[in-house]
């Protein structure tokens, strides 16, 4: 069976802190693009590793192939912070004045 497991970045949430890029020891991310997270070598990702997702301060990382109960640890506070943004419209589209 082909392994399918690699991180996916929600760029609408990511703050480009660079933590995931610098902390992954397997070269999955393109270090030249740091601090922007660009998945360059998805095949190098370790199946069921949540290392970068657990470190992401805003819960922007999920995984293709996710089959566990894991959810990004900081996702709820990110949602709460969004609710407290300027207009509270909860609109994730580019039409929102908060973007
Ligand atoms: S899940 Fe683990 S191996 Fe895969 S990119 Fe994140 S830290 Fe690297
Ligand atoms: S750790 Fe999270 S916020 Fe930081 S660059 Fe990676 S995806 Fe973006």
Brief sketch in words of this structure:
The protein is an alpha+beta fold. It contains 3 helices and 2 strands; from the N terminus they run E-H-H-E-H.
Amino- and carboxy-terminal Cα gap: 42 Å
Shape: globular
CATH architecture of the domain at 6-73: 2-Layer Sandwich
What small ligands are held by the chains?
iron/sulfur cluster
Strand tally is: 2
Radius of gyration over C-alpha positions, nearest whole angstrom: 15 Å
Q: The biggest beta sheet, please?
A: 2 strands, antiparallel
Helical proportion? Answer: 10-25%
How are the strands of the largest sheet arranged?
1-2
Explain this structure.
By secondary structure, the protein is an alpha+beta fold. The chain is built from three helices and two strands; from the N terminus they run βααβα. It has a domain at about 5-75: Alpha-Beta Plaits (2-Layer Sandwich), CATH 3.30.70.20. It is globular and about 40 Å long. The model has no long low-confidence stretch (mean pLDDT about 85). Bound molecules: iron/sulfur cluster (2 copies). One iron/sulfur cluster (SF4) binds near residues 9, 14, 16 and 37.
List keywords for this structure.
3 helices; Alpha-Beta Plaits; 99 residues; alpha+beta; binds iron/sulfur cluster
SSE layout:
Layout: E1 6-9, H1 19-23, H2 51-55, E2 61-64, H3 75-83
Antiparallel strand pairs: 1-2
